[in-house]
Amino acid sequence: METPQPICMVRDSKQVRPLMPDERERITGFFLFGEGFGDMICLLPTVQKTAELMGKRLDVWTRRPEIFANHPLLNPVRSDDEALAAYLSGNDRLLIVSPVEIKGLPSRNQTHIVEQPARGIIDLQPGDKKVRLYTTDEHRQRAAELLQPLGQMPKVVLHPNRSWKIRTWPSERWRRLTQGLLERGVQIVAVGSEVSNIGVSEQNIPKGVFDLGIEHPSLLDLTNQTSLHELREVIALCDLVITVDSGVLHVANCTDTDIVAIFTDIDPRFRTRIRDNKPNAGTKIVHSPCPKQFCQSWHGSTGECIQPEDKNMCCLPSVEQVLEAVMGFLRDQPSP
């Protein structure tokens, strides 16, 4: 007798284990690890298509339920150990677990843009890998109202992110970039928010934004003023986004607005926007080449960094590099 082959990992009332082919109908949703907004956004295509192919509403247990809101087939639930235990006890419910470690891939981060979390249940085609946040008319109206103080000149969303050292462009460079854009007649929309650590992992440190310390009529400060979905609509109404590898990058990936992305430790093919099965669509990656570029071994979940020095942002692009990339995008756009 041939042993059934597992097709993905699931959680039942007792453990995390492989799902067997005859158990698909017991699936009632997903149990998603991780606290990062970007990680959860990257899982949207898999979760959405699984619900569509199974033809039923799925519960999505996650620390970031807002990401899965407004979809007719998804019921987002904030993860809570006690509530989850009660949900799984005494019945046949199974939850697909993600992310999982896939043999042959150097980092679990690579599972985010492929169908691995529900392997064997769904087959993501090139067009399915387009991430999408489901927004409402209220979100779109709020975004338009927030941008009213600015005129018709090009608007650039700027996310002066403060995070791990290895993913933080220095505050002084953000200020110089802002000043350079303002001098070139570009309107700036500063976005981002303080994000508290809701987990217990040392990797998930509190994150936020630098105070640019600049007052200018063409600088609109929307930091700590938008919800996730309102931010998506603000970005959609602007001409360009400048950010590092962050949650805002993944929100921007849910739009068609051009992106200038500053990358360091993660290969951008696993993080940037996918269109027609190709990464980096409408995205300019800016970095300063060095031997450490795209080192994925520093992450605490996969071991110590292979580099002996402190884990700082090792491939710092210059302000001039970023300005050149931004103005290149804006020159290619039609006049308003």
Describe this entry's structure for a reader.
By secondary structure, this protein is of the alpha/beta class. 23% of the residues lie in helices and 17% in strands. Helix 4 packs across helix 6. The radius of gyration is 21 Å and the shape is elongated. The N terminus is likely disordered.
Quick structural gist:
The chain has 336 residues and is of the alpha/beta class. 23% of the residues lie in helices and 17% in strands. It has two domains: 9-124, no CATH class; 137-331, Rossmann fold.
Write the layout of secondary structure elements.
Blueprint: E1 9-11, E2 16-18, E3 27-32, H1 37-42, H2 44-54, E4 58-62, E5 74-78, H3 81-88, E6 94-98, H4 137-146, E7 155-158, E8 161-162, H5 171-183, E9 187-190, E10 208-209, E11 219-221, H6 228-236, E12 240-244, H7 247-252, E13 258-262, E14 283-286, H8 319-331
Parallel strand pairs: 3-4, 3-6, 4-5, 7-9, 7-12, 9-11, 12-13, 13-14
Antiparallel strand pairs: 1-2, 1-6, 8-10
Helix pairs in contact: 4-6, 5-8
Please give the order of strands in the largest beta sheet.
Answer: 2-1-6-3-4-5
Kindly, what is the distance between the CA atoms of the first and last residues, rounded to a whole number of angstroms? 69 Å
Number of helices: 8
Mean pLDDT: 81
Enter the CATH topology name of the largest domain: Rossmann fold
What percent of residues adopt helix (DSSP H or I)?
10-25%
Q: Uncertain spans, ≥5 residues at pLDDT below 50?
A: 1-6, 102-115, 293-307
Strand content: 15-25%
Task: State the secondary-structure class.
Answer: alpha/beta
Question: Would you identify the CATH H-level superfamily of the largest domain?
Answer: Glycogen Phosphorylase B
Order of helices and strands: EEEHHEEHEHEEHEEEHEHEEH
Label the CATH architecture of the largest domain.
Answer: 3-Layer(aba) Sandwich
- C-alpha geometry: elongated
Question: How many separate domains?
Answer: 2
Question: What about the largest sheet?
Answer: 6 strands, mixed
Gyration radius, to the nearest Å? 21 Å
**What would CATH call the class of the largest domain?**
Alpha Beta
What is the strand tally?
14
